[in-house]
TrEMBL record:
Membrane topology: Single-pass membrane protein
Ranges for domain Trichome birefringence-like C-terminal: 130-418
Species of the source: Eucalyptus globulus (Tasmanian blue gum)
Keywords for this protein: Membrane, Signal-anchor, Transmembrane, Transmembrane helix
Annotated PANTHER family: PROTEIN TRICHOME BIREFRINGENCE-LIKE 19, PROTEIN TRICHOME BIREFRINGENCE-LIKE 9-RELATED
A GO term from the CC aspect: membrane
Protein name as it appears in the record: Trichome birefringence-like N-terminal domain-containing protein
Length: 440
């Protein structure tokens, strides 16, 4: 009897081992080929550069895997745009000494900003984690693709932030078609990835018709039914368009439609009705989105990067206003309201309409909703630290743009997370849209 039991044991043991081995192999294969069951290891590589080879390099060039904000992912359903700013003592991940892409007026540390805590925060969504930006992972995801920032100087500010974040892996080369700094292109050779910016502060065709205007800040004519061809003519070349606009609509504007003046915003012209900036803002986004949807060969993803509120206190931008806070707001200390809320709602409403129309063509729109997180960062602006105190320049306190390093580095955290979940979202949308068509 004992011999029979031993014989049976010898016969079954290899089968159990084989079965366990097969199951283990299947689990490994599934985890490798299903991007939603696991995240790749976040490993940063570093290339040498003439602009960042100093031994006194202060930037953190690698992020440890035990950081809870690194390597984790928003696997569960979570609104990554609602949350709080929490301390991140390991930041920043680059400095003004290691990144050459920082515009002088956003180079706060160079020009003597005394505090540094504004660089040491990360965004923590309610109910999940938002991984910090991983440059190597981002560049792998966009390998062979191209991305354009379409908007004003805050859009350029965002692109410069991304270049600095990516500098831990590679610096791009200048492949611009022009010497005009408002239309730059950069290529990451190793990844065949191109970044570009298109200066278009109103998104539509516009021109300054009076350098003084009623407020001494210029008077601009906007053709609200004509998208600015300086970006539209090249939009089809790009896989990703990141569209934004806002602060230039505060200046005096004259609105044209159908070749005729239909109204204005604070133009103070005789017999021209004041339709307010909100009218022009809505029409500008409607025209821009309509133009994108009308492009024959555009197959990319359009992101609306929502309005980034300014933080002037004690006056408006040219009447002594300033931003001197040194800590973020908590969510219960501020709220989107008044003009900021109106501008935000206009953007989102026009975005939703365009998104629905785009779906008929198989085009994708995504909402890069940075407004709430940005509203909570009154401490992140250059203020007076965009030039030397002794310089005789006419520059107002800057509470519109953002210090680099600074809060808008988080916009790349958002964007990378959206890119990582794009495949899943696209499949879900395709299924929902197909279901609606079947029911119709």
């Amino acid at each position: 009897m004992k011999g029979e039991i031993q014989s049976h044991h010898h016969r079954t043991t290899p089968k159990i081992v084989l079965l366990v081995t097969i199951l283990f192999a299947l689990l490994i294969i599934i985890s490798l080929y299903n991007p939603f069951l696991s995240q790749p290891l976040l490993i940063f590589s570093r290339t040498t550069s003439s602009s960042s080879s100093s031994s006194s390099d202060e930037a953190v060039v690698a992020v440890e895997e035990d950081d809870p904000a690194i390597g984790s992912s928003t696997a569960e359903i979570c609104d990554i745009f609602t949350g709080e700013w929490v301390p991140n003592p390991r930041a920043p991940y680059y400095t003004n000494k290691t990144c050459w892409a920082i515009h002088e007026h956003q180079n706060c540390m160079k020009y003597g900003r005394p505090d540094t805590d504004f660089m040491k925060w990360r965004w923590k969504p309610d109910g999940c984690e938002l991984p910090l930006f991983n440059p190597a992972q981002f560049l792998e995801l966009v390998r062979g693709k191209s991305m354009a920032f379409v908007g004003d100087s805050v859009a350029r500010n965002q692109m410069q932030s991304m270049i600095c974040l990516l500098s831990r892996v590679e610096y791009p080369i200048d492949v611009s078609h022009t010497s005009n700094q408002q239309y730059m292109r950069w290529r990451y050779v190793t990844y065949n990835f191109t970044l570009a910016n298109f200066w278009t502060p109103h998104l539509v065709k516009s021109a300054e018709t009076d350098p003084n205007g009623p407020t001494k800040t210029g008077l601009f004519s906007l053709h609200l039914d004509e998208a600015d061809d300086r970006w539209l003519s090249e939009a089809e070349e790009f896989d990703y368009l990141i569209v934004s606009a806002g602060h230039w609509f505060y200046r005096p504007l004259v609105f044209h439609e159908g070749g005729k003046i239909v109204g204005c915003h604070f133009c103070l012209l005789e017999n021209v009705p004041d339709l307010t900036k909100f009218y022009g803002y809505r029409k500008a986004f409607r025209t821009a989105f309509k133009a994108i949807n009308g492009l024959k060969n555009y197959k990319g993803i359009t992101y609306l990067r929502t309005f980034a509120p300014s933080h002037f206190e004690g006056g408006i931008w040219n009447q002594g206003g300033n931003c001197v806070r040194t800590r973020p707001f908590q969510s219960n200390e501020t709220a989107l309201a008044d003009e900021n809320l109106e501008l935000y709602m206009i953007q989102v409403e026009e975005f939703r309409k365009a998104e629905q129309e785009a779906r008929e063509r198989g085009l994708k729109y995504r909402l890069l909703d940075t407004t709430q997180a940005t509203l909570m960062r009154p401490d992140g602006h250059p203020s007076r630290y965009g030039h030397w105190p002794h310089e005789k320049v006419t520059l107002y306190n800057d509470c519109v743009h953002w210090c680099l390093p600074g809060p808008i580095d988080t916009w790349s955290d958002f964007l990378l997370e959206m890119l990582k979940t794009e495949g899943r979202r696209s499949r879900e949308e395709k299924l929902r849209f197909s279901d609606r068509k079947l029911k119709a």
